[in-house]
Design a protein that fits this description.
Elements (H helix, E strand, L loop, with lengths): L1 H8 L3 E4 L5 E5 L2 E8 L2 H21 L14 H6 L1
Length: about 80
């Protein structure tokens, strides 16, 4: 699961805003986004939001997107 989370985070997109803050999003998870004063904080908030979204999806028995070579197998979902 950690490998999946880290791989998903590699697809994160960050945008510097005119006020100096940073927005972050993950295309495979449209509901996961973050906004913070710095890139480091935005990255951290995005990771927290992604982890929460993954846990909620698994709890609801919803499938997670397959990214490149990593998919969450059913036995991994049962462990959550």
């Amino acid at each position: 699961m950690i490998k999946y989370l880290h791989r998903v985070l590699q697809h994160a997109r960050f945008t510097a805003l005119p006020d100096g803050s940073v927005e972050g999003a993950i295309p495979a998870f449209p509901s996961v986004h973050a906004h913070a004063p710095s890139l480091e904080e935005c990255r951290w908030l995005l990771e927290v939001a992604l982890a929460r979204t993954i846990v909620e999806a698994l709890h609801a028995e919803q499938p997670l997107p397959t990214l490149a070579d990593i998919a969450v197998e059913p036995y991994e979902q049962a462990l959550v």
